[in-house]
Amino acid sequence: MIDYKIVRKRGEKEYHRAVARGRYPYLPALDDLLSMEETVGEEYLGTMEIPVHMIHGTKTAGRKESFSYGFMPLLEPGSEFAAKWVSLYDIQMDTGFTDPVKVYEYMNCFYVAEGNKRVSVMKYLNGDSILADVTRVIPQKTEEKDRMIYYEFLDFYRVTGLYGITFSELGCYKRLAEKFGRDLQTPWPEEAVRLLKTVFVYFGVLFAEKGGGRLDITAADALLIYLSVYSIDSLTCKSPEEIRRRMDKLWKEFRTGVREEAIDIVDTPELSGGTRSSGIFSLFAGSAYSEAKPLRVAFVHEKNAENSSWVYSHELGREYLEERFDGILKTEEFSDCGNDEAVRAAIDRAAEHGDEVIFTTSPALMAETFRSAIHYPKIRFLNCSVKLQHQAVRTYYTRSYEVKFVLGALAACLAENHRIGYRADYPIYGYIANINAFAAGAAMIDPQSRVILTWATKENSDWRRELAEQEVSVISGADMQPLHSTSREYGLYRYEAGEPVNLAVPCWNWGRYYELILRTVMNGTWDGLNAVKRNQAVNYWYGMSSGILDLQLLRDFSPGTRRMVKYLRDGIVSGNVYPFEGELKDRQGRVRQREGRMSNEGIIGMDWLLDNVDGSLPKLEELKSTAKNAVSVSGVIEK
């Protein structure tokens, strides 16, 4: 027979520990919580096994002070309560509990209405699950992150009937379903649910054994990271030792986690290695690299420089590096890597050649880039994207919204009917800021301006017709002129006598960007970033002040217009002009920012449009397949 005094002593320790830390020492009561929350009803789910670790408190306030916050008993030995607790312990050890406890589930936590002592016994015994009659209390749907994640869970529960798999970020339930070849609309067959349970339990046990409980992610978060590199089959046929070795390779990713704060946005390069005008040898004095032992760098492109302006611009950057570093650096490129197999083959060849840094120049290549980074931990990998959370792969992108702000202001000067067109491509992180900055620049010059948004990447898109019907003559088109084309529908242009005439264009200096990044490799500061020490993912996000982005006027504008453009451009470079400053409202009239300057995280994560934009973000099913590939990795719309 168990000594109740020992059990109670554990409860007293939990109580005193909570008090010392300023934490509530007793069980939380659901009724207390719901008195401050709005709900939309209840749903009886039936009798089922529920995870013991998800039982957080009691339904009513009457019994909450009988237990510590960890469900250990607090009442005196010799009391009727203590006798019943010991009796229930004996029953569990002898035959096990057969009657279900009664619980209410709210926001993926269970609260006990009947059976608190049985739950306490199971908590003491570190039990995995307990039979329960479950009633769900449904919270009101809001735009708060935890509510949105919970409503995603409800979709997941309806097709699987599973509790215990919890995520920290939006979209993870859908991604998990896709890993198993399923969705969140169609009920899963029994064998698929059984496979998911088997894989999750097996992985969860090994994850906990390795200390996963001390990390800031759930076991489900870690499983999704694991499945982005390794197969589901590996969790059914590989030995525990092999799975542990794979976890070791991924542990930095687990420590980084999945939350937004796990990303460190580096928006200013460190120029400790010298100035841009310095000679190459003064820049890298003391470097481990030389003509005899150059730094080898590979570039992997989704398309090629003959059919893609994007790849062509990055190839110009690569050629700049070869010239700039004058033998201290050697590069090679791999083109037409449009699928995972081609990316993997290119990276394998680069590794065989001894390349130490590999850039993949499209967000669509990120999945295989990450898998390869885990496979080749000594190679430095970077992907041209933003807001992706991997320590093994750094990302780099430009603050293009800065140039768009200036172009929007210029467009407003020229649009006599206050209507300006915007031809957009990909609804991915960072790109929506371009649209909003353009609209903000236009509104600054002309408060009556309207930006008519169209998407060229939608299936059967006829964006020219859409803009013509809106009587738009001034348009922000594709950022670059298509290769082998005489089209003038790029940059900022205006129709004059029925023909497009270019007014201004954004300019990228990818060579300068690559130089700034590779300088940190050569001078030994690559691993010196604070983000590395804090287990954060590194996202480079440089702008006009770094010399990697600018704009060029292509017409002889009036002196006043040219002064305005110069004032805004110079102001952004110096930091005196900021596109997203002061009150900002979206199309629905909601205030997205009341004052001050918007943070980098807020700008990158924009998934809304300013109030002077006429249009909307496309749905995934409306996009062409090429756009879907990019959106699946880095999209801001529901994937």
From TrEMBL:
Statement: the UniProt record of this protein carries the keyword Ribosomal protein: no
Annotated Pfam families: Bmp
InterPro entries (alphabetical): ABC-Purine-Binding (IPR052910), PnrA-like (IPR003760)
Keywords: Signal
UniProt keyword Signal, yes or no: yes
Domain ABC transporter substrate-binding protein PnrA-like: 296-475
GO cellular component: a single term: plasma membrane
Name listed for the protein in its UniProt record: ABC transporter substrate-binding protein PnrA-like domain-containing protein
Organism: Hornefia porci
